[in-house]
Specification:
Helix content: over 70%
Order of helices and strands: HHHHH
Structural class: mainly alpha
Number of strands: 0
Number of helices: 5
Distance between the termini: 48 Å
Amino acid sequence: STHLATFKRTVVEQLKPLLEGEQWVGVLDYSVLAWGYVKATPVWENPTHNNTRKSCFRALAAASMTALRRGHFTSEQLAGIRVKMAKLQVDSDEVIVCLKYIDDMGQSKQ
């Protein structure tokens, strides 16, 4: 429990400077990279023990959503981001909101 709490704190704290510095591409890259590390954490039989894992996925998806909303991405960039994020959906449905937003943005730019 202590180790997972420390892991979660580290994942979230690493996002802060990227968000505060408005490094939107960096936020998205970090989120995709960190997603793999969160995915590698244990999945416990007791669902309440998986709250830290879910919380990390939620934080990464929320940061990604912030980057998508505030960054000014081209249609090509959005398409590339969508490909990367679609692969993450297998691990957590938290990323669905980002995918929907990208789809909506892609339609509005056409």
